[in-house]
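Researcher: Re-running this chain for the archive, since the previous output was lost when a drive failed. Same request as before.
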Amino acid sequence: MANITVSPTRMELTRLKGKLRTAQRGHKLLKDKRDELMKQFLDTVREVRALRAEVEEDLMTVHKSFTVASALMSSEALEQALLYPKQSVELTMSFKNIMSVNVPVYDFQTKTKSDSDIYPYGFAATSGELDTAVDALGKVFQKMLKLAEIEKSAQLMAEEIEKTRRRVNALEYVMIPDTQEAIRYITMKLDENDRATTTRLMKVKDMILKQSLEEKRAENARAIEAFNAAEGPV
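Model: Regenerated structure tokens:
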């Protein structure tokens, strides 16, 4: 018997069959969504790994350049050169939809488009290694922003995959089997009721036939008696 309480009626059977068809259709759609999300997620993870390797390599280059610059300049001069940033950045965020998952898209715009505006110092009192470090840091910033974007996308997709997986499992292992079991239970009960009704009808039919035969015999007997009484004694 099903784990849910059902009323063994034809109306309930029709309702459960419709519910089962809807659940099976939803199960298929959710499985397709889960599979496509997994494909998108794996592509994103590969992109994260490749970009993270690039960012780490670029950051190592920046660190080496700053190390050389700090060796060629005094710490006070280096601090004074980088104390007041010259360029400002405006960061905006929008969203794009990937299989019903809203993932962020980061975009930044600098106040001015000139590449030379990233240097907050004059070139006379600084080393060329500091210029290289600042330039490399400005470029790696864009990659870091892209890395943050796709890492967040991967996180959101992983959460959605887990939610979808739970829904698929709930349909596949709980709702659909319980509904199928309820349908079998109601079908069995209705078949039993049909057989019981057929048996009762057959018994009633036999009783009616038997009663009809008895009435006909009695009627024939009365007719014979009346005929004999009309003839009189011989």
